[in-house]
Structure formats: structure tokens, C-alpha cells
UniProtKB/TrEMBL annotation:
Belongs to the derlin family. SUPFAM superfamilies: Rhomboid-like. Functional component of endoplasmic reticulum-associated degradation (ERAD) for misfolded lumenal proteins. May act by forming a channel that allows the retrotranslocation of misfolded proteins into the cytosol where they are ubiquitinated and degraded by the proteasome. This is Derlin. The chain crosses the membrane at residues 17-40, 60-80, 101-134, 154-179. Pfam families: DER1. Residues 231-251 are annotated as: Disordered. The gene is Derl1.
Length: 251
């Protein structure tokens, strides 16, 4: 148990709480401590009955059962793997900026869920984070199942197809990819590559709650170091090179 505890404490702070919540809430529903019908995002209950907890519980809850257990575990692995890599990579020392990214993506997904009557938000949020990671490391070569190798920029779409095979739907994954693309475009692509204005800025209260570490840069509009190097290389006509290779699933 001590090894498991050490591993859990080694997970980056924000990812650790997200990961823990994504285990605890489905477990509470599975054990019947809280009825799962109270955990879904239902627009009528949220808007007209003021059950304001539903967007939060729908983000953590997943109906685990014989037909959904494998899909749940796969996406829980994606949450741990890519949220950890993003939090300790591009957002290293800047927890407020990472939290803002999660909040921005989450708000966009909640709005989409209310409009499209989506009852579960776990997979879209995970996919939005994975999409941002893939774009920040787009030229990295990753390995997927059966030894297939491709650039990281294709990973969200490969996983979309993979989840379709094991889960039978692509709506959640597609919405997650689109929301991740929106954040990436507004945060990095438009201001850095296209010279546009910065539309996103981390609120100051997040910096007071989650202060930067090791002198991290405060505020959005400043790309991660890997992207600044890529932008400098591109001035000479070079290609983007936003990461180093690794095998999918390596710790």
C-alpha cells in the first residue's frame, strides 16, 4: 500500500485531484451511496430546478459496468498520462495557467453539453486536454497499440476511432477535440503564429490561489518554452518541433 500511496502522491497536484475525483464519484454511484440519476447533467434539472452541482458531478461521473468498464479505464489512463505530462511539461511551475485551461475547456464543454443534452462530460474534458498536449508536441513520434507509430498531432483522432470501436460513439471525443482546438488556437496559434491579440488571460485570483513556482511567467499570451523555441526556429523557415519522442504508455 505504501508503494501505491507514494505513486499517488507523485502525481502532479491538479491532475491528482482530478484523477481521484474521477475514481471516487463513479465509485459512489456504483455502490449506491448516491443515486446515479443525481450525477448526470440534465439541462432541465440544472436550469429549472437549480441543481447546480450537476455540471461538476457529470465531469467526474462515469457509469462503470460490464459494457463500459474497459472504456472507463482507458480514458482514466489517458487522464493520468496526458494531464500529468501537460501539467509538468508546458505548464510546469504555472498551476494557475493550467487550472485556467481546464476551467476554460470545462465551461465550453458544459455549455455544449447543455445545448446538445450531453449527460456525461468526463471523456470530452479528457480529450480536450489530450488534444492540447498533442498540439504542443505535434511532431513527437508516439507508438500506439500493435506497434503503430505516428506523429502526436494525429493521436486525438486515432483515439477517437479507438473509442468508437470499443464504445460505439464519437460525439464525446469529437467535442473534446474541438474544445481543445479552440483553446489551443486562442491561446497559442492565433497570438503566436498569426500575430493576433490575446483573447485569454488567467484571472488574478487563480494566481493568488495557485502561485507560480520557480519564477514562472504570469499571464497568458506567453507560450511555453518549447513553443517559443519553435517560433524562433520558424523565423528562419524551419518547421515546428514541439517535443521529443516517447513511446505511448511509458512512465
Amino acid at each position: 500500500m505504501s508503494d501505491l500511496g507514494d505513486w499517488f502522491r507523485s502525481i502532479p497536484l491538479i491532475t491528482r485531484y482530478w484523477f481521484a475525483g474521477s475514481i471516487a464519484v463513479p465509485l459512489v454511484g456504483k455502490l449506491g451511496l448516491v443515486s446515479p440519476v443525481n450525477l448526470f447533467l440534465w439541462p432541465d434539472a440544472f436550469i429549472h430546478r437549480f441543481q447546480i452541482w450537476r455540471p461538476i458531478t457529470a465531469t467526474f461521473f462515469f457509469p462503470v459496468g460490464p459494457g463500459t468498464g474497459f472504456l472507463y479505464l482507458v480514458n482514466l489512463y489517458f487522464l493520468y498520462q496526458y494531464s500529468s505530462r501537460l501539467e509538468t511539461g508546458a505548464f510546469d511551475g504555472r498551476p494557475a495557467d493550467y487550472m485556467f485551461m481546464l476551467l476554460f475547456n470545462w465551461i465550453c464543454i458544459v455549455i455544449t453539453g447543455l445545448v446538445m443534452d450531453m449527460q456525461l462530460l468526463m471523456i470530452p474534458l479528457i480529450m480536450s486536454v489530450l488534444y492540447v498536449w498533442a498540439q504542443l508536441n505535434r511532431d513527437m513520434i508516439v507508438s500506439f497499440w500493435f506497434g503503430t507509430r505516428f506523429k502526436a498531432c494525429y493521436l486525438p483522432w486515432v483515439i477517437l476511432g479507438f473509442n468508437y470501436i470499443i464504445g460505439g460513439s464519437v460525439i464525446n471525443e469529437l467535442i473534446g477535440n474541438l474544445v481543445g482546438h479552440l483553446y489551443f488556437f486562442l491561446m497559442f496559434k492565433y497570438p503566436v503564429d498569426l500575430g493576433g491579440r490575446n483573447f485569454l488571460s488567467t484571472p488574478q485570483f487563480l494566481y493568488r490561489w495557485l502561485p507560480n513556482r520557480r519564477g514562472g511567467v504570469s499571464g497568458f499570451g506567453v507560450p511555453p518554452a518549447s513553443m517559443r523555441r519553435a517560433a524562433e526556429d520558424q523565423q528562419g523557415g524551419g518547421r515546428h518541433n514541439w517535443g521529443q519522442g516517447f513511446r505511448l504508455g511509458d512512465q
